[in-house]
Amino acid sequence: MSEVFSWGDILGAHMQMMRNQHKPRNICVLVQAAKPCRKSIEDYLEG
Fold first, then answer.
1. Helix, strand or coil, per DSSP, at residue 46
2. pLDDT tens string 23-45
3. Domain ranges within the chain, ordered by starting residue
4. 18 vs 11, 21, 22, CA distance in Å?
5. Would you list the DSSP string of 2-24?
6. What is the reported pLDDT for 18?
7. Which burial class, exposed, middle or buried, applies to 41 when counting CB atoms under 10 A from its CB (0-12, 13-18, 19+)?
8. Percentage of the residues of the chain whose pLDDT score is greater than 90
9. Cα separation of 33 and 46, whole Å?
């Protein structure tokens, strides 16, 4: 994963892709997640 964007930054992520300004590899947008790296319900409940 080269970049992770919040839902609020999705427009910027699309603009980077459209202009081919994004870093190589995959781009991720967090949907209903406050931060990356939550792998289980326990991670979510810890906050």
1. helix
2. 888 888 888 777 777 666 676 67
3. 3-46
4. 10, 8, 9
5. -EEE-GGGHHHHHHHHHTT-SPS
6. 92
7. exposed
8. 23
9. 13
Asked if the model's pLDDT at residue 11 lies above 90, the reply is yes
> How far apart, in whole angstroms, are the C-alpha atoms of residue 34 and residue 21?
25
Q: What's the token pair of residue 14? A: 């699309």
Buried b or exposed e, range 26-35, using 16+ CB within 10 angstroms = eeeebeeeee
Asked whether 38 and 44 are in contact (CB, 8 A), the reply is: yes
**CB burial string 3-23: b at 16+ within 10 A, e below:** ebbeeeeeeebeebeeeeebe
